[in-house]
């Protein structure tokens, strides 16, 4: 007889990144008699704890079901379970940086408005799909290619969006052939998905890895020049993390320190590139000097911005730079080598799926013996909370980031 185990995960950030601790620590509690519904992905894992962690690292997962015979972990984006005598249910823990609906109450606009069915109704938090009962659906006039758009206010890493169609009437003719676009501004919107035919009652739009955007737009693609359309939806949710400098004010260290030019100066938020602006670190004269930041937890890294000193010595003291990252100090690896003099400002773009807790910048002394002095004025790191692939391998999970 197959046994389904649905678990409530209690994975904390402290546990996730203290991988030297007991790897078999309790990660879940069992809920007999239920299994998760609305499964959107199945993964091969070796244990129920692996299923719990898989749910935790997915931005969408709320519950999951582990099949002890097939070793399949079924991820669900609903917090509902259905009765199953052989089932036992996994609920996701709430992370400190849990993905949020970043469109809620944000400014919205549309191509036209019918009476009081304004654009803001789609970001009011009301998902009632009855047009007249809920008073929470927008409605355009009859026109070609009607559209609706939200301004998120800032750039966000977008995980996914959820579209709620009107369901009391006309849903089969008025929300069809829908195009979803995102972008940093309204003149450079990128098509993420085209949904042919009638829009379902609820549709989830999955975003590419590390997709950033300030704007999201939903429109009808009129299929002939003579098409005139009326467009209405009842709610549009956009889930993501803010694009922010995750190194700001984090603990930093340095191979050596000259006077009071301490490592914390590079994560103080001050990008002044004049050394005497009191915001640059400075080592002693040594071989292969380095600077390092501890981000505290593992993040998915997007990019890093390095600010060189520009008032003096920049051409000889910040050269042949290595940028390394790692989940542990013992497993640091090189992301980029910058030969020659470091520019005034340099952006290090991280490869997809880069996860790290530590970031290190150093000079590669090219002659032996070589003595170098190292100084930089600010190092910014951008990304959002992740989960260690090192930990996942210990739990028997195929390292895979789900969206």
Question: How is this structure best described in words?
Answer:
The chain has 403 residues and is mainly beta. It has three domains: 4-95, Hepatocyte Growth Factor, CATH 3.50.4.10; 100-242, Jelly Rolls (Sandwich), CATH 2.60.120.260; 252-386, Galactose-binding domain-like (Jelly Rolls, Sandwich). The chain has six helices and 22 strands. The protein has helices at 13-17, 48-57, 131-134, 171-174, 314-317, 389-394; strands spanning 4-9, 28-30, 32-36, 39-44, 63-67, 72-76, 81-88, 100-101, 108-110, 147-165, 176-183, 190-198, 202-206, 212-220, 233-242, 252-254, 290-308, 319-326, 333-341, 345-349, 355-363, 376-385. Strand 5 and strand 6 form a beta hairpin. The longest helix has 10 residues, at 48-57. The relative contact order is 0.15. The model is unreliable at 1-30, 92-97 and 387-403 (pLDDT under 50).
Structure summary:
This protein is mainly β and 403 residues long. It is 8% helix and 41% strand.
How are the SSEs placed, and which strands pair?
Blueprint: E1 4-9, H1 13-17, E2 28-30, E3 32-36, E4 39-44, H2 48-57, E5 63-67, E6 72-76, E7 81-88, E8 100-101, E9 108-110, H3 131-134, E10 147-165, H4 171-174, E11 176-183, E12 190-198, E13 202-206, E14 212-220, E15 233-242, E16 252-254, E17 290-308, H5 314-317, E18 319-326, E19 333-341, E20 345-349, E21 355-363, E22 376-385, H6 389-394
Antiparallel strand pairs: 1-2, 1-5, 3-7, 4-6, 5-6, 8-15, 9-10, 10-13, 10-14, 10-15, 11-12, 11-14, 16-17, 17-20, 17-21, 17-22, 18-19, 18-21
